[in-house]
Amino acid sequence: MTEAAAPSPSLKELASASFRVGCLGFGGPAGQIALMHRVFVEEKRWIGEAEYLHALNYCMLLPGPEAQQLATYAGWRLRSVTGGVIAGLLFVLPGALIVFALTWLYAAWGTLPVVAALFYGVKAAVIGFILEALVKVGRRALKGPQDIALAAAAFLGLFLFQMPFPLVIGLAAAIGLIRSLSQPRPATAALPIPAEKASAARALKAAASWGALWFAPLIAAMVMLGPDHVLTKVGVFFSKLAVLTFGGAYTVLAYLQQQAVEAEGWLTAPQMIDGLGLAETTPGPLVLVNQFVGFMAGWQTEGGGLWLAAAAALMASWCTFAPSFVWIFAGAPFSEGLRRSRAAAGILQAITAAVFGIIAKVAAVFGMAVLFRGAINTPLPWGSHLSLPDLTQPDLLAMVIAAGAAIALIRYKVNIVLVVLGCALAGLLSLWM
Question: Which Pfam families match (predicted)?
Fold first, then answer.
């Protein structure tokens, strides 16, 4: 085991390093996790290799943005709760401010022909991002016929049978729990004594206090504005999302598309793809697309505008990231026990397999919206309708841009920002087509 050689940092040193991570954290969760490893483990030597991997494994068991949770865990490990708050907030804040500014510009001027053409290219690039995510998830998730069957069932449940997203996740977790009964206990290397001794009383106190902070804005909105106001609905929706989205940001998109687009009508599928493109090209967690959705919900609601959009964006962001403080501060002292749990390992593996099917569903829905100019509503025997692409109306330019983005990302590992910029410029060709 490699121990951290340097003493724990001061709060000022931790804040400086965390702000640096927040400003440079491009490339999605994988890039951000690698960046934190370089800063906290290799450069500063504040955290040992085994501690970092242990923290990462624990965060991957949690719902929500694992990279932000890892930053919070690292801060908690180094400087207790205050350090966790500093590291977790500074991981998100730079990207959140940038996404807010870009979303405002998009909402105000996104219909201008040149801007629309740039986002046309970004939409096609997003298809490449999702295909890259499918490849990455498939490599670690599909370890046998059972996992493949589970991924296929998740895809069909969402796409064909239009099952609620929470039900799909719940069924996958139940299957994983059942499968775990016949599996050996996961092997775990020896680890340092946790920074804070596990205590049920301390965990309940942390969960209650941080849970109260999480729900305070939502309760205030419900009391002052009522349950049917868009601000309350945004808070309720993203609070549910925070506890149901295992497997990273692309699983969030499946639930967003099902609820925010289809059920609530806060924005259209093409607009949500634009939001994902903005989140891809800015630092911070990819799940900042939630902030974009919240902003558009406030902006486009009747009687809305900038102030309501800003409040809804803030509500969406708070309800997305505040739960991470609950999971870390209440659960981190118990995390070693979770790592040794057969049930936790089995549930994680099953949900990871289902995530492949969930991302495939996202790829299908977004692909139809971007790569074809029309859709056909097909009735299903059980009474609902399935939207399928009109194969007679392909968008050839979008297909070329999407294919180029996928090849650049998967085959040549080109920087994400460069891919987005290149695809946005290629989208200008649509002005002459």
Answer: Chromate_transp
The SS3 call for residue 378 is strand
Buried b (16+ CB within 10 A) or exposed e, 97-114: ebbbebbbebbeeeeeee
Backbone angles phi, psi at 385, to 5 degrees: -125, 150
CA distance 38 to 270: 36
φ, ψ of residue 249 to 5 degrees: the values are: -65, -30
pTM for the full model? Answer: 0.85
CA 86/CA 84 separation, integer angstroms: 5
CA-nearest of 15, 78, 69 to 46 is 78
Cα(181)–Cα(306) distance, rounded to whole angstroms? 53
* Residue ranges per structural domain of the chain: 11-92, 96-432
**Residue 110 to residue 9: CA distance in whole angstroms:** 44
Distance CA 74, CA 321 (A): 16
Instruction: Confirm if 21 and 35 have CB atoms less than 8 A apart.
Output: yes
pLDDT digits 0-9 by tens, 270-327: 899 999 888 888 888 889 999 999 999 999 998 788 999 999 999 999 999 999 999 9
Burial class, 413, CB count within 10 angstroms (exposed 0-12 / middle 13-18 / buried 19+): exposed
Summarize pLDDT for 46-94 with one digit per residue, the tens: 998 878 877 887 887 788 898 999 999 999 999 999 999 999 999 999 9
d(CA 286, CA 256): 14
**CB–CB of 394/388 below 8 Å?**
no
